Each structure stands twice: as structure tokens, then as C-alpha cells.
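AcrR family transcriptional regulator
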Amino acid sequence: MSSRTAPGPRERLLDAAQKLTYSHGVGVGVDTLLKAANVARRSLYEHFDGKDGLIAEVLRRSTAEDEARYEETMRAAGDDPRERLLAIFDKLGEIIAEPDFRGCRYLAADLALADPDHPGHAVTRDYRKRVHRLIEHELVALGHRKPARAAEQLLLLIDGTLAAGATRPGTDPAASARELAEHILDAAG
């Protein structure tokens, strides 16, 4: 017989904040977060030193999940680096088509967090560096003559795809970005 332990206040805060900051942005109120997590205000300060710490931890948690999705998407595409990279854009098309899609959590956070020293910015910068490395690794395997530059270009296409997917419903930015990505990959040799 197994007994299941209910999540504690820290996990409930993280779960609630991860959902609410995606659907309503990082400007969601503290009272709304506390109510959704069913925790006292004291828990927010004990576990995260306040809302800024909670936002940074939610971003950190999300980046780990999203980085794993990139790796899973590329792995599922097989061994060919070109196909692995193009699979990213196919996956973005699927993500954008989901009914609860609200855009890129990291772009939204960076735009909404006015304080340049907010700890969330360090998390999003680190995440983009890690995704850049994943993409650059594939470009090196492809034999691209400028893998770092091409990785920057592909990241720009990813950001643009996610932004357009949120702001221009009914369009297919992932398909357009995939076509542009093919041109970047064709410049490999």
C-alpha cells in the first residue's frame, strides 16, 4: 500500500506560478498566486524571499523542462543533424496549434520585467545560451562553416515563430520559419 503525500507549500506555489505566469504574465498579483496555491503569504517569503525569487525559480524550472523538450524533439528526428534541427520548427508548429498557447514564456518575461537586474533575466539569458549550444552542436555535426552565427539565426527564427504564433492567430509561422531555416542549413557547405 502506498501513501501519496500532497505537495507542500513550495511546490504548490511553483505549480500555481508556473501556470498563472504563463497564462496571465509575470505581472500576476501575489494575492492571486497565494490563493491559487492555497498558501499563506509567509510561505512565499520563506521559500522564495518574495515574488521576484518565485518568478526566477519558475523560469528556472520551465527552462529545464523546455530544454529537455528540445533534446527529445531532436532525438526523435533521428541522427541526421539537418532533420534534427528542422524538427524543432515542426514541433513549434504543433505547440502553436495548442489551444492554451500564449507565446514564449521567456520573451514575455524579459519584456515585462522592467528591472534589468531582476533575477529572471539571468535565468532567461542562461536558457538561451544552453539552447544556442544545443543548436550549434548540431550545426557543427552538419559541417556548417559558421555554426555559431547560424545558431543565432535559428534562435531568431524560433523567437519570431513563437511571437508570431501568439500575435497572429491563424497563420503558420512555423512553416515559414522552417523554410528560412532550410536556407540557413543549406549554407552549411
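thats it. Residues 51-76 form the longest helix (26 residues). Residues 2 and 8 are 18 Å apart (CA to CA). bye
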